[in-house]
Each structure stands twice: as C-alpha cells, then as structure tokens.
Amino acid sequence: MPLDPVSAPAVAVRGLVKRFGDTTAVDGLDLRLRRGQILALLGPNGAGKTTTVEICEGFTRPDSGEVRVLGLDPISDNDRLRARIGVMLQGGGAYPGAKAGEMLRLCAAYSADPLDPDWLLEVLGLTDCAATPYRRLSGGQQQRLALACALVGRPELVFLDEPTAGLDAHARILVWELISRLRDDGVAVLLTTHLLDEAEELADEIVIIDHGRVVASGTPADLTGAQSQDRLRLVTTTPVDTEALAIALGADYRCEPAGASTCTVIGPVTPQSIARVAAWCADENILATELTAAHVSLEEVFLSLTGLAVRS
C-alpha cells in the first residue's frame, strides 16, 4: 500500500541496491528517518553513503529496492518532491559569477513561502558579503551560502552533505545551532559528515555503513555505551607492560596501549577486576594516577566496525 505523503516517514529505504558496472555501491540497504529527527549517515570513502543520499534526492536511479521520501518516489514524483526538500551540495551548486545575495534570492523565488533571504544572510553571517560574487567568497562563506540556499524554501526535509567542512570553530557552532533549530521546528535532517563529534552532538540516530551495507545503527549513547561497560582506562606515571597485565588478569582480559603511559583493559568491569588492576600496579611499583571505566568514543566504535579512518 502506498505511503501517505503527509504521515509517512521523512525517508524510508528498504533493500536498496545500486551498481556501477561490476561494483556494488549500495547492497541491500535499509534506512528510516522520522520527521523532526536528525539522522547522521557515516561511513568511510566508498561505503555508499553519497550514492544513497543521491538516490534519496532523486539524482540517481536505484537498480532495485524501495525508496520513499516524504511518502513519494524521488524519481517519478520528483517535481512534487522538489519543492518540499532542501539539498546542500558539497560543491555549493552556485553560479560562479552570481553574487551571494542574488543566488539566495533566486533560490527563494522557487518557493511559494520562502524565508526572508536578508534574515538568513544575517543569521549565517553573510550580510557583509551579499554583494560578493560566489567565486570570490571564502570556502567557509561558500559553505554557509550553500546551507542558506538549502533552507530558504522552508523544506520539510533537508539533506546536508558535510555542512561544516572548512568552517572555523565559531561558524561551526553557529551551523550546529541552526541545524538543531531545524529539528525543533519539525524539519527532518539527513546529515553526512566525517566529523564524528558533529554526529554525536547533533544526531538523534546514527547509521554506519560500509561496503554498501548497514553495519551499526542507534542513538549515539546506544553505539558508545554498548562497549563502554567492558573497558577500563589506566593511566600511570611510567609505561605499563600490557602483555604482563593481561596475563595477570586472566583469559577474559586483554590490554591495549593507548599512549605512552595509558592503556585500555578490555574485559568484564567488576569491583574485583578493578582491585586486581590496582594490586598489580602496586606489586610492580607502578603509580596509577587514573583508573576509570572508559567511555568509548564514537570514533573507536567506527574504527572497530570499519577498520578504516574517517576521511572526507
């Protein structure tokens, strides 16, 4: 039964497959984004995230699977869908000779009820460069203008591709605040980013994909908390023989160096295991300055699942 375009999820993807020659870019992927939520799609280069987003935006046709965006088919219903979504492209998508203010007003003219372009320029710190041609804007200004063009039409759903790439710390926080306000206003956001702290800060749900498949999904707390309960962080004044410590703790434990005088003890964290680590340090005449249940970062989760560093 077709989904009601009004009550349907912002994005519903099931069994998505896309091939380019002999390469399968997306391999049976499922994805669901609720309205008024932020979903961060993460993955290393070549994982299939850009292809997935381009299919949802209606720029690329899938080979198989079902894709519905605001209850509509992004290919056959593209004309109906275009007015309801905002797309921020990594390359900016602006005419090189167009002035920043002109470009934003052109985008606003495509909408029946746009935001005030002058207000949006002010919010994003672009008022002073409104008369500057796009090609003469700094990378950060181009990035903020691309975001403004995606938002000016009051979309129900926004696709943001690396929204803070190249921005300084102040501009990055400003964009984070604006994205959070979109969610507060009921706008759904599908975000791709290589900045894992950005995903952890903004997203209601994170989906990690690799080789075109979902390898993990959940809230940031779900993804990091599942592994945190089985780790201890040990900081000492002198380096630790991690192999000797692991032998002393027993077969259920292993130790990994995490710095010159820091290591991670992986295994069941109990009062007894904490006491055994402390006792081993005392026996070895090693001063432990910190012994805590470790918080696993999103980056550690990402690397454990994909084995690759995050790259833009």
Task: Walk me through this protein's architecture.
The chain is of the alpha/beta class. The chain is elongated. The strands form three sheets. A six-stranded mixed sheet has the order 5-6-7-3-8-9, with helices on both faces. A four-stranded antiparallel sheet has the order 11-12-10-13, covered by helices on one side. The protein has a three-stranded antiparallel sheet with strand order 2-1-4, with helices on one face. The protein starts with 10 loop residues before the first strand and ends in a 6-residue tail after the last helix. The protein contains eleven helices and 13 strands. Helix 3 runs parallel beside helix 5. The chain folds into two domains: 214 residues, P-loop containing nucleotide triphosphate hydrolases (Rossmann fold, 3-Layer(aba) Sandwich), CATH 3.40.50.300; 68 residues, Alpha-Beta Plaits, CATH 3.30.70. The longest helix has 16 residues.
Query: Looking at CATH, which topology of the largest domain would you report?
Result: Rossmann fold
CATH class of the largest domain: Alpha Beta
| Percent strand | 25-35%
Strand order of the largest sheet: 5-6-7-3-8-9
Determine the structural class based on helices, strands and strand pairing. alpha/beta
How many independent structural domains? Answer: 2
Helix content: 25-40%
General form: elongated
Q: How large, in whole angstroms, is the Cα Rg?
A: 24 Å
CATH architectural grouping of the largest domain: 3-Layer(aba) Sandwich
Q: Give a short account of the largest sheet.
A: 6 strands, mixed
The number of E-state strands comes to: 13
Number of helices in the DSSP assignment: 11
Distance between the termini: 39 Å
Mean pLDDT: 90
Q: CATH homologous superfamily of the largest domain? A: P-loop containing nucleotide triphosphate hydrolases
- Spans where pLDDT lies below 50 across 5 or more residues: none
SSE series: EEEHEHEHHHEHEHEEHEHEEHEH
